[in-house]
Amino acid sequence: MYKSIHMANQGNMKMAMVAPQIAIVSPLFCVSYPVELNVVRKMVTLRDSNFAVVDVNGNVIFKLKGKYLSLHDRRVLLDATGLPILSLRQKMFSLHSRWEVFRGDSSDSRNLIFSARKSSLIQFRTELNVFLAKNKSEHLYDFKVIGSWLEKSCVIFSGDSTIIGQMHRKHTVESVALGKDTFSVTVNPGIDYAFVVALVAILNEIHESGHD
């Protein structure tokens, strides 16, 4: 299922060192080498989504589909075959733009994996605190996202301040010609890249809603 991304990044395998695994969504999305992904917004070839994640060869790995008729504002992260990987739901009446992420197409609290919210109501830069489902007290965050969404420059840290991934803007002739908004995401070895993509998707939704 995820052969394409593994083949696209296999050139990094020889120089990669064994890294501790952080599997938030699934170990299937953890590899022992850096993963390079491109996020393409406003992709004209996607009929039901304007947010796609492609590998270095342009193969679609994930796409984000909206469910606008649901009670909550929901998005579903699908893999290349259309299989639901994660369901992202914006929590109603949340001052800090809180999003909850569930396994598959579920919205059942038993399938909650993590939640993310703005660290403060007023921000001069993008800053999200991320809490795993088992972190009931939320006194300390498990992960943190810091940067500037408008500049497409953000860094994702674990709770001990270790960088696990980052994003930056990517300018290409294709993106300029087709009016696409494209940026890159680098996920460090051993890190769940589906988890990192979900965080980027949440940043996108917060920006789209004008709450950044």
From TrEMBL:
One protein family per Pfam: LOR
PANTHER family hit by this protein: OS07G0230700 PROTEIN (PTHR31087:SF58), PTHR31087
Protein family per UniProt: Belongs to the LOR family.
Protein name, entry field: Uncharacterized protein
